Amino acid sequence: MDSTDHDALPAILSVTGIGKTYVEPVLSDIALTLRAGEALALTGENGAGKSTLSKIIGGLVAPSTGTMRLAGAPYAPASRTQAEALGVRMVMQELNLLSTLSVAENLFLNRLPQRAGVPLGWIDRRRLRADARDAMAQVGLEAIDPDTLVGELGIGHQQMVEIARNLIGDCRVLILDEPTAMLTAREVDLLFEQVDRLKARGVALVYISHRLEELARIAERIAVLRDGRLVHLGEMANLTSDRIVTLMVGREIGERIDLGERRIGATLLKIDGLGRADVVRDVSFDVRAGEIFGVSGLIGAGRTELMRLIYGADLKDRGTVSLAAAPGTPPVPLQIASPADAVRHGIALITEDRKGEGLLLPQPVAANISLGNIGRVARHGFVDAQRENALANQQIAALRIRTSGPAQPVGELSGGNQQKVVIGRWLARDCKVLLFDEPTRGIDVGAKFDIYALMGALARDGRALVVVSSDLRELMLICDRIGVMSAGRMTGIFERDAWSQDALLAAAFAGYRSREALLETHDAQAGGLS
């Protein structure tokens, strides 16, 4: 479809002069139009205003200035429910599901079918299951029982349930905010098939993502925000990925990064035979002072579970975690029965779920940074606000956290700045070992390079970094060595000069191939005995 075809499509939603101010402006004078049957890519750095604009359109946030029109009529939703009733739906990064209810109940929570001829409140379970199966089939969830509790599903399936929920009923505008962050490749393909169907039905889509290859795959036009302003609106086909990145960050970013001159010292952290059931199976590796050690592998390979064992969030069945007490001294086995023990020994974990496990979102930046440093900010058993703010300001300046100040609720910050707050908490405590689990997930290109630069500074300071990432290119960019997890085992450790993408991927599948071979041998032996 060329630009002339796009211009001929009817306008579904138009926004004019939209702005939003909290302590300071986060959106200014945004004007754009959504057309029937097309996908508009919305991108920009974290903090550029993408989520705020989406929440204004979706009825979650009221604009400070500007107007909107839906199908030619004035549009000013007072709530998300009101926006949904008018056909404007939004799938947010934070899932809007109740884990203790079934998939079917979550899908039809506000419109549960009632049984005829019985008192009000009796649910028609048969019809509910049938309707749920129809809705789930749209996103490829036919194999899941609609009576399954949502809390029993993996995060990727929960995301698909959330998408299915928003496709029920009349949908004229659908906003997808980072919808593929937790999805497998197959689930992404299913989502894109559904996007094509929606466009064929005349639905207008806003697609927010930092994955530029996805934007090129499904979007006809692109809107780029920077510092709360619309800096580009045009045809997707006219922009290269490099040009989009330049528009987002306002500067050129290369594919290489200089982490500075580092001196990699003696072994600081040593993992020996660490395991828990079949999830993590006898993993051994070491990390030296000043080194960035990457951990790669497929989803479900045991990467996060390994970090949790080292940190004491899960209890190990076997193996040891050892740490050098001083530079150049041999690592000594530690007794780690809880995260508190790990932190006391100087080991910190930056969790993959920063919103659910790493931060207190309603609390201010200062409280989140002081959370792991109460001893530094308390006097006579009470938190000293002056000390707490001083500590927060120190980390805000050191990490260049974009915030109005230490009193701003951390939930109002962008994903990249939230991640910096989590890191700042542990930097203030001077931990020797930092475990990063998916540190740049959901973070834009510019903020990623800020995090990489910060990792380089930590390594130059002689700390040991362990970085788990699903992005193989990211690990190859920043790491000195990469260990590959497969089916709970570490199947290979590669030096920077010796790795290749093919070798790393082969190691990621190796554990599953050996497990399949073992099962085939077992089956053959069982057949021979019968």
UniProtKB/TrEMBL annotation:
InterPro entries: AAA+_ATPase, ABC_carbohydrate_import_ATPase, ABC_transporter-like_ATP-bd, ABC_transporter-like_CS, P-loop_NTPase. The gene is mglA. It comes from Paraburkholderia solisilvae. This is Galactose/methyl galactoside import ATP-binding protein MglA. It is found in: Cell membrane. Its main location: membrane. GO terms for cellular component: plasma membrane. Residues 10-252, 259-512 form the ABC transporter domain. Keywords: ATP-binding, Cell inner membrane, Cell membrane, Membrane, Nucleotide-binding, Repeat, Sugar transport, Translocase, Transport.
